[in-house]
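INFO batch 0412 | record 1 of 1 | parsing
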Amino acid sequence: MTDPTSDRKTTVEEGTHFKGSLSSKCPIEVKGRIEGDVTAPSLVVSSTGAVHGRVKVGEMRSQGELAGEFDANVVQLSGTVKDNTIVRAKSLEVKLTSTEGMQVVFGECSLEVGADPVHPEAVVRPSESLPKTTTTGGATSARPPADANGA
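INFO prediction complete | emitting tokens
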């Protein structure tokens, strides 16, 4: 017997602006804009999408714009993370969208990654820049510079 909700998803189409609390038992796909609280098993933010608010999901993939507070088990980022944004995840993957000297930039935000993301060393602080990146199959993990020259 198949789950009747397995093929369903909640979509916020491009040109649509939703403001308020959105809770779904189906995955949510955002091509437009959401401002408010979002709860779902998964969230996909397309390159035209934006989510500003508090989000609690199992999985999140974003090629669009994020601002607010995001809690998820698995996060894949390749879009924009606005200032004063908090991302908490057990697993975080940052993908480059271009191979032409792309730089990963985080504004004034907090990233907490790991099974217990309250350890200070697991947080990227706003004062830390991320000039060094390592790339593996299009995925990038960043680390703060070791000294003032970034070496």
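INFO post-check: The chain has one domain: 10-143.
INFO record closed
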